[in-house]
Structure prediction request, 328 residues.
Amino acid sequence: MQLDPSIIRALSLDPATTTVATHGSSGFNATAKISTTLPTGTRKHFFMKTAPGKDAETMFRGEHASLNAIHNAVPSLCPASLATGLTDHGNAFLVTDFLHMSSRCSPGNQQGFSGMSLAAKLAKLHTTPAPIPDGYSKPMFGFPETTCCGDTAQPNGYKESWSTFYSENRLLAMLDKCERNHGKDAEFRSLVEKTASTVVSRLIGDDHLNDGKRITPVVIHGDLWSGNKGNGQIGGEGPIEDVVFDPSAVYGHNEYELGIMNMFGGFGKTFFDEYHRICPKTSPVEEYQDRLSLYELYHHMNHFCIFGGSYRSGAMSIMKNLNRKYGD
Prediction:
C-alpha cells in the first residue's frame, strides 16, 4: 500500500521511515494505519481515512473540526485530527492521532491517566462553554463546518436561538432530505412542521428552557451511540481511557446529545446518574424525558432518511405523543 505524497507533505513525514497498511473497517471509507520514525527515533502512528468524491471531502472536513472541538475541551476524550484535504489523486483524506482500541481501561494509577469515566468526561464537555465563532461577539448555536451524521450532511449555519436552530437546521432540514430520498409524504410533512412550529417552542423555546435564562452552547458529539465509544490509547501509547470517535459536532444544548444515546441504549442508569451529578438536568426538570424524545426524533428521521422502513413509524409515534401533550 502506497502513501500519497500529499499526506507525506501534510504531516511533514520522512518517506524513508514511513509505512502505511490497511487497518480496521468503515462503512463509508477506506481506513489505514500510518507508522513513521520521528527524528528523535520515536515510533509514531496515525489513523487515516480516504474516500473519493465531494461528499467525502465535506464529511472529513466536518469530522476534522468535530474531533478538534471535542479534543480541545477534553483532550482525553478523543484523538486530535491532524490533517484533512485532497490527495494528489483527488481523493479526500483525514488523518488523526492513532487510537489503539482495547477491551478495558487502565488502572487509575498509570502515568497520564485522567482518572475520569466516560460520564465524567462527557459532563465536562457539556459544562465547558463552546468557543465564540469567528466574526461573532457572543456564543452561537451551530458549527463552523457542515457535519455528517451517518452520511447525511447537516447544515450548521449559526443561529442565536437554540429552538430556531433545532427547528430549521435539524427537523425541517431533515424533512426535506427525507422527501428527496423517499418522495412526498403529506402526513409526515404535516406532523414534522407542526412539531417544529409548536412543540419545539413549547419545550425548548428560549423563554421557556432554563427558566427563561439563555442556555450556553456547548460542544456536542452529535452521534454518540454505543458503537462510537470504547476504550483506547490516544496516540497508540500511554493509559487506556474511555474514548469516543466518529463525531458530527455542533454547538448546542447539552441534552441534545442524549437523544441518540436514549434511542439506541448502551448507557445505563449508573452512567446518567454520574453524568447528571456534574451536569444537572435543565429546568423544567419534569419535561426532561419529553425533551429527550424531541431530540431523539431527529435521529429517527435521519435513520428513515438513510435506511427507510420502520424508522418512519418511530418518528411518527414520537411526534404524535409530543403533539398530544404540547401541540395545542
